[in-house]
Amino acid sequence: MEKAHAAVRRAVVRHADGQWRCAWCGDDPLYVQYHDTEWGVPRRDDAHLFEMLCLEGAQAGLSWITVLKKRANYRRAFDDFDARKMARYTPRRIERLLADPGIVRNRLKVQAFVLNARAYLDLLERDGSFAGYLWRYAPRARRHRPRYLSEIPAMTVESDAMSRDLKRRGFKFVGSTICYAFMQAVGIVDDHQQGCLRASRRQASHP
Questions:
Q1: If phi over 0 gives left and psi between -120 and 50 gives alpha, with beta otherwise, what is residue 25?
Q2: What pLDDT, in 10s, does the model give residues 70-101?
Q3: What's the rounded Cα separation, in Å, for the pair 113 and 88?
Q4: Active-site position among 20, 31, 39, 56
Q5: What is the domain range of residue 68?
Q6: Catalytic: 39?
Q7: Domain tally for the chain?
Q8: pLDDT tens-digit readout, 30-45
Q9: Considering the entire predicted model, what is its pTM?
Q10: Does residue 206 belong to any structural domain of this protein?
Q11: Selected catalytic residue, list 34, 38, 148, 151
């Protein structure tokens, strides 16, 4: 019990390069780069947001590093997340994807990518901007920057609301926990811990 309690109260960790990073960021160079350059940086690029929402769904039941290591394979397999191409995938194409060892070969998740592409295109037609739609769910008040991992929620009222509406619009693998992880990844919320090198840098919004 004490060991488990200590684990969730983990504060920032000092890495071999002397930099302090969030406790969830391990030593894998790919993970470190992702933490330092991507996670929590506000993004407003529709195509990038669509890709990240799909990938966050792909990690359901897995760790993010598993999907991160396969991201290049996902981009190859799914036409660089070109939603117009993905929306036209046939059952035969799906079977070919399920034989691809470079991605997570889960039928429901692969089918979800196709359904999400169709829902995304429909949303663009109705709302004009995926980014504009998603950023409506940004918290209105900034939370206190977390010191320990235990202070970071798994879901919030905002992620609950995002999840409900995405599901209503036909998106799959968009439960509240997945939506909150997505919000963290694309900077809709900023959960870098106190003392983390990213917490002290101004995170400019990408166009």
A1: beta
A2: 999 999 999 999 999 999 999 999 999 999 99
A3: 11
A4: 56
A5: 5-200
A6: no
A7: 1
A8: 999 999 999 999 999 9
A9: 0.92
A10: no
A11: 34
